[in-house]
Amino acid sequence: GTYTLPDEWSLTGGLRYTDDETEGWIEETGYYFPGNVAGGYFPATASATERRAPQAESEEPTWLLGLDYKPSDRMMLYAKYARGYRQGSVNLASLAGWDVHEPEQVDTWEIGAKTSFEGRFAGTFNIAAFYNDFQDQQLQFGYYRTNGVGTTSILNAGASTIQGVEIDGTILLTDSLNISFSYAYLDTEVDELLVPTPDQYP
Predict the structure, then answer these.
(1) Tell me: the pLDDT tens digits for 32-64?
(2) In Å, how far are 40, 41, 94, 114 from 36, measured between CA atoms?
(3) What secondary structure letter does DSSP report for 179?
(4) DSSP bridge pairs for 164
């Protein structure tokens, strides 16, 4: 919802609540074959079956707060803050113990301006600066199982920040010809990366 304040100001707020449930089911059978340096085929001497049904539940409120100021009909200045959320889930390719991961969240801040202009060449010019702070980041981790088979898991193993500037605009040269331009600068930094060691494997 948006509430208009005096003197060309307006305040925007939003609220969302998400409740996620994810379920999976898997049955894996491993066969063990005898080794023979002479080669040849030998039938499996043993097998082992594992059945798993991982479940993940996550719930999170997210929101948006924004403030706009319009000093003229052709300019709007704004600032906003939002909380984002990516649900937790299951990954059936993972080892038991790593087959469930928790939610990821991000806090975003942004300030900017949106403008338009007239004259010999009319057009628009927009600029925004932003900062994103990720926590409990869901990262894909590749590893080998004890049986030598490679696989991946999704782990809550990181935190990072992404900040930058975006600029875009248009210039109307004629009624049927215009020029569009855009520029983006990103500064990304991994603040925390928790990589499990083999002794921490489930």
Answers:
(1) 888 776 777 778 888 888 899 999 999 999 999
(2) 8, 9, 31, 73
(3) E
(4) 130, 186
